[in-house]
Amino acid sequence: MVVELKDLVVLSFAENNCYTKVERANAVCDERLRIDVSRGVWTYSPWKDVRIGHSRFIDRCSREGVIGVYDASDVKQLGSMVHDAMETVDRHSFEVD
């Protein structure tokens, strides 16, 4: 399956870090994010390549930046994005006092 940049969306932490947000990939202004559509991977420096449609592992200390890059034209990837967003918010919700 060929991935096109125009179809990609980015899931990331919102500014208040209790929520997530979704943006079109071509509208994200974060110099740490690199997307290679020809290889079907994305990188959020300093982490290693991650396949489009998958999230990077977010440990309990991470509360900022990109969580994942997904193809909005692929229903399975959108389902994964929703799951990753819920899991990320749930993981941090117990830490908020």
Overall mean pLDDT: 86
Measured on Cα atoms, how large is the radius of gyration? 13 Å
Low-pLDDT regions = none
Number of domains: 1
Intertermini distance = 44 Å
Which strands sit side by side, in order, in the main sheet? 2-1-6
How many strands?
A: 6
What is the 3D form?
Answer: globular
The major β-sheet equals: 3 strands, antiparallel
Strand content: 25-35%
Structural class call reads alpha+beta
What percent of residues adopt helix (DSSP H or I)? 10-25%
Question: With helices defined by DSSP (H or I, 4 residues minimum), what is the helix count?
Answer: 1
Order of helices and strands: EEEEEEH
What would the keywords be for this entry?
97 residues; 6 strands; alpha+beta; 1 helix; three-stranded antiparallel beta sheet
Structure in words:
This protein is α+β, with helices and mostly antiparallel strands. The chain has one domain (5-55, 67-93). Helices cover 20% and strands 28% of the residues. The chain is built from 1 helix and 6 strands; from the N terminus they run ββββββα. A hairpin with a 6-residue loop joins strand 1 and strand 2. The longest helix is centred in the C-terminal third of the chain and has 19 residues, at 75-93. It is globular and about 35 Å long. The N and C termini lie far apart (44 Å). The mean pLDDT is 86.
